[in-house]
Design brief:
β7 (180-189) and β8 form a beta hairpin. This protein has a domain at 81-221: 3-Layer(aba) Sandwich (Protein Transport Mog1p, Chain A), CATH 3.40.1000. It has a 7-stranded antiparallel β-sheet with strand order 2-3-4-8-7-6-5, with helices on both faces. Helices cover 25% and strands 25% of the residues. It is α+β, with helices and mostly antiparallel strands and 226 residues long.
């Protein structure tokens, strides 16, 4: 290396060091990440009897009291539903003669079963916040479970009637299918909806209609509003 080269290195070396010093002190700009917020919003459906179509809540099969699926189209247990069921209060009733009372399971408030020479049927009592899609959507879900086609709101009077349950105005539902049928009660009650559903062998269900109505007549819901 000649003299001129050594002189050039002496000139450039300090500048290079200063450049490295400052570049090493620079901090990387922070990176922002957008994490999608989990949606827990629920559509507030119209009151029972409203003919407007609502998007039904999502569903998954709900296990029966014996552990087997009770049919497609049952309600999915969404976040908060178990807590809401607990907060809805207790239910008391008289078990019809010949029916078997089973222990409550999951979010069910009551389980009963009746068996005869034709088959068996299970009565389940559930409560959910809101109206879970409205009267029409709920009845069409029940119809789907026993192989019946969906109906329009104008068809409801053919298989429903006003019915008082625990001193509140509810709805009695009679759905006669082929292999299976459903007798049920729907009751809007202080911001929640109670579902009373007897489902099973068609002959067994229909032969127990008088006892189903007697059961509904005996129902008493815990009511902190009165």
């Amino acid at each position: 290396m000649n003299l001129s080269d050594k002189y050039l290195v002496r000139l450039l070396f300090p500048a290079a060091c200063i450049s490295l010093l400052f570049s090493g002190c620079e901090k990387d700009e922070p990176t922002s990440y957008l994490i999608p917020k989990e949606s827990r919003d629920a559509n507030v459906p119209a009151a029972p009897g409203d003919s407007s179509k609502q998007a039904p809540a999502p569903f998954v099969p709900e296990p029966s009291a014996t552990g087997a699926p009770s049919g497609a189209g049952n309600m999915q247990v969404l976040p908060g539903m178990a807590e809401a069921a607990e907060e809805a209060g207790e239910v008391s009733y008289t078990v019809p003669e010949g029916w078997e009372e089973l222990p409550p399971s999951g979010i069910r408030k009551a389980n009963l079963r009746v068996t005869d020479e034709f088959g068996s049927a299970e009565l389940t009592v559930l409560v959910f916040p809101g109206d879970v899609g409205g009267t029409l959507a709920n009845i069409n879900r029940w119809r789907e479970q026993i192989g019946l086609e969906e109906v329009a709101s104008g068809d409801l009077p053919a298989f429903t009637e006003a019915y008082t349950i625990s001193r509140h105005r509810g709805l009695y539902v009679r759905l006669e299918g082929g292999m299976q049928s459903i007798l049920g009660g729907l009751l809007p009650f202080h911001g929640s909806t109670w579902f009373f559903k007897l489902q099973g062998n068609s002959q067994t269900v229909m032969d127990n209609e008088a006892k189903m109505k007697a059961f509904l007549d005996s129902v008493k819901l815990e009511d902190s509003h009165h």
